[in-house]
Design brief:
Chain lengths: 421, 107
């Protein structure tokens, strides 16, 4: 890649912006065109269901990099620009207005799309989902109206987004019902002990939690949302409904272009796709591990690290993303920080005070640490993150022992790996 | 409006004029400085906005919260006595002339 080359990036979110920025850090001197379908410069999404939803604020407060930075990095940012197709045989992208943009290399960072609820009434006004700034503003407005009119906010889905929206809605003064189809909260990612802590937390803040609730219909009366009807016939009164039942990778462009996809654009640990001229990063990808397993991550860290990997790969260098994945969530006064992937665990031990809550749950499989969830235990999280990155971990007995210092396992390790990661 | 100087990992110094109440992290991100990542966007959840505060300034800053102290125990680069998270440092007039340095890596 030289100064006459053009790299086109489809998607101007966290991943797309990271690729653009890392390309400059990797020494790319050519043209970078960053295509975004929203009317905003690249911005952070996590606050949209947290602080920004509660407190409101300017779009500028969410921005990833300011206009001066984008100019200095010589990134041609095209907002409000939708891509219709990727033509790999001609190395071009076709924009929604029909113009064609040739590329030497292409990066795809199209993110994910909220899953929709396939029931009658789900597409009427007052039924909302969260992806971008406009959605967060709409949810904030609907929740405030519910609070003023003393109508309930019904959240469908007891995962991260649903629970963060529920917590925000309570802070905004609305009554809230959460309908979860499974028997506990966040059941796909956490152990029952953690689910139980969050159920207690939400109930203590006045949220009505309903488990095993299968939504059958969103009922409207007099032209507006009135209730959510469950499969068992129970109706939950609603002034507005927020759907938070997960996201799907937005891999349509890639699939249509014939790139290898399987619930996400398949990439290797260096963010390379099945086409040697194309990389992909963030929520839209599914990463193939060395053992053949596919991992899908939806997180800021994943977008950033794959973005760095992708930029390096476009410049012909290998920079694999190997660190342990981490995630966080803020609900009321509880900071949940997670590191590793707990899927397949056979043992959980806790460390700290469950009642407060201020504890960590350590997930093991066959005695090997897979993941750690920390609730208001920042030091456990940070230490576990470093331990997992170094392939180190406490035994279950050590983890459960409040006197045992996790940091003691790191002594000697930091010197050996100081140049890594 | 306080002026704060940021020293990039390669030694380049960049002086920015901050708005009162703005965090150093926000200003550095807006300016596109390279030595900062701020993955969590200022929630004190990731420790990727780590900086070293120039000697002499440390005691003029509001001391770190318990959470920040815990986060600082495991930053990616070397932890020093003058390590802080720039998302927790809020610009005020008394900080005019402050210099902070970014470490060689954040993650």
């Amino acid at each position: 890649m030289d100064s006459h080359s053009r790299i086109v990036i489809v998607g101007a979110g966290q991943g797309g912006m990271q690729i653009a920025e890392s390309l400059r850090q990797e020494g790319f001197a050519g043209e970078i065109v960053l295509l975004g379908d929203e009317p905003h410069p690249p911005y952070q999404r996590p606050p949209l269901s947290k602080k920004w939803l509660i407190e409101g604020g300017t779009v500028g407060a969410l921005s990833l990099r300011g206009p001066a930075a984008i100019e200095r990095l010589r990134i041609t940012l095209r907002q409000d620009t939708r891509v219709r197709a990727i033509e790999r045989t001609r190395s071009e992208v076709e924009l929604a207005d029909g113009t064609r943009l040739p590329y030497d290399r292409l990066a795809i960072a199209t993110g994910s799309l909220p899953r929709t609820l396939p029931v009658p009434g789900a597409s009427q006004p007052g039924v909302l989902a969260l992806r971008g700034i406009a959605d967060s503003l709409a949810i904030g407005e609907a929740v405030r109206r519910c609070a003023a009119e003393k109508r309930r906010v019904v959240v469908v889905g007891g995962g991260f987004i649903g629970l963060e929206v529920a917590a925000a809605a309570r802070k905004l003064g609305a009554e809230v019902t959460v309908l979860e189809g499974l028997p506990r909260l966040m059941s796909r990612v956490t152990a029952p002990v953690v689910s139980e802590s969050f159920a207690r937390l939400h109930r203590a803040h006045g949220v009505q939690l309903m488990f095993g609730a299968q939504v059958a219909e969103i009922v409207s009366r007099e032209g507006r949302v009135a209730a959510v009807r469950a499969a068992d016939g129970q109706e939950y009164p609603a002034g507005c409904v927020v759907i938070g039942i997960g996201v799907d990778p937005d891999d349509l462009l890639a699939r249509s272009a014939g790139l290898l996809c399987e619930r996400g654009i398949i990439v290797d640990e260096c963010a390379r796709t099945s086409d040697a001229t194309i990389v992909a990063a963030g929520d839209c990808t599914a990463r193939r591990l060395a053992d053949g397993e596919l991992v899908r991550l939806e997180s800021v860290q994943n977008a950033i690290e794959q973005g760095k990997s992708g930029a390096a790969a476009l410049m012909g260098r290998e920079r694999p993303f190997v660190n342990a994945p981490w995630f966080w969530s803020d609900q009321y006064d509880v900071k949940l920080q997670m590191v590793g992937l707990s899927r397949g665990y056979d043992q959980v031990v806790t460390r700290g005070d469950l009642a407060k809550p201020a504890y960590s749950a350590f997930y093991y499989r066959a005695g090997r640490l897979l993941a750690v969830d920390s609730l208001n235990r920042v030091s456990d999280h940070m230490q576990s993150k470093r331990l997992l990155d170094h392939g180190l971990y406490p035994t279950p007995e050590q983890a459960a022992d409040p006197q045992f210092e996790l940091a003691s396992l790191l002594k000697g390790a930091s010197a050996a790996t100081a140049g890594g990661a | 409006m306080p002026k704060v100087t940021f020293i990039e990992p390669d030694g380049r110094a960049v002086t920015l004029t901050l708005k009162r109440g703005q965090t150093l992290m926000r200003a550095a991100m807006d300016a596109g400085l390279e030595g900062i990542e701020a993955q969590c966007g200022g929630n004190c959840a990731c420790a990727t906005c780590h900086c070293y505060v120039q000697p002499g300034w440390l005691d003029k800053l509001k001391p770190p919260s318990e959470d920040e102290q815990f986060m600082l125990t495991n930053v990616a680069a070397e932890r020093r006595p003058n390590s802080r998270l720039s998302c927790q440092l809020v610009a005020e007039d008394a900080l005019d002339g402050l210099t902070v340095q970014f470490p060689d890596r954040q993650s």
